[in-house]
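Section 5.1 Outputs to date
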Amino acid sequence: MGFQFVHLESFSRKGDAHGRGTAFIFAEASRKPEASIHVANPAPPVVVYGLDVAEVEALHDAAADAARTTPKDGKPRKLRKDHKTLHTVVASHPYTMDEIRDDPAKRNEADLWEKRTIDWLRSQYGDDLKSVVRHEDESHYHIHAYIVPTDDPEMRALRHHPGVTAKRAAMAAGPIEAEDSKVLSKRGDGAYKGAMRAWQESYHEVVGIPCGLARLGPRRRNLPRGEWQREKAQAKALQAALERAAVVKMKIETHIVTKKAEVEKLVSTAETEAAALRAEADAAMAEAAQRLAAAKAATEAAKAAHDAAIKEQTKARGMMSFVREETARVAAHAARLQKLPSILRTVFDGWRHSKVADRIRAALESDMSALRERASSALEQAAKADAARQKAVERASSLNAALAETEAQRDALRREVARLRPPEPTPGASLGPGMKPAPGRR
């Protein structure tokens, strides 16, 4: 394995001291005969990135014609013919075309180098990198990159030249302390070399080291052959180490991706289960709330029923007291009525005037009517007490005894009233001399 080779250069439409302008560069890239005399058997280039050469040339020429520069007077002007509008990079691999054609392993190494080089060019120049072509008709495997600054109104290709940019910045900053122009220019040259060295180091880190290329060749450092062979072996060993590290890195990344997918799946499953559990919990809470509301309503209804039962019980007790009082009054009237037959006999025997008899009969009828009304009222109250007892039985079993007692008293009262009711007088019985039967008693 050899060392890396990468070179950059900017061109104008006018051409340099060797007559190389942008038209010649594009002609050489496309292998036109007038620009390909250095190639024994010219072959068309292979486009490995972006546009083909003709498209890049058309894009460049149109942009250069439209570009304008603004000098100090502020009036836009067309670009000068010697204005650098095209930037190029050439990168070459140590393998010859014959080696690559004969050895598939070396072809694979060259392909990897090419891919890494294109990636590095894209990182350096972005959208200004318009095309990368490979020439396979020369001794060594190499590629050409064409950078056209179309986004810059002045098409300043030299802004992609790190050495020129660094030197211009140093010169624009002016002398330090008592520097003269010679010292300042020397410092600018140092900035140029430093920037170019950094550019080469960047390529070496991204492309050279992973591809097993040395940073510099043996002639540049006057290395003996043995040391150069050892350095190439070290570069090769470093490449192998980097390749192993890349394999390990890929395995690690694959493992991470796999585990990440597993974790994401577990998280998704957990989230789904958690959502289901939350939904179930919400449903359970809603059901519990409904049941709680129903229980609360049932409790309120039971409480209301209990209060109503208490009221009915109190009402029944009041009615029972009333019935007892009425029973006592009826008993008192019954006691009076028990004396009534003897009184009637005395009256019937003693009184001989029908007017007196009529008055007695009227008074007796009035008492009997009042007694019948009271008995009827007592029966009605007893009936109400019985209805209240039935309701109280449905609400509280504790009222059964009291209602049973009320029924017993009611029945006793009925029997007592029936027993105490006076018999109808028999016509002609116990009537004294001269007494007439009462009207309506025939």
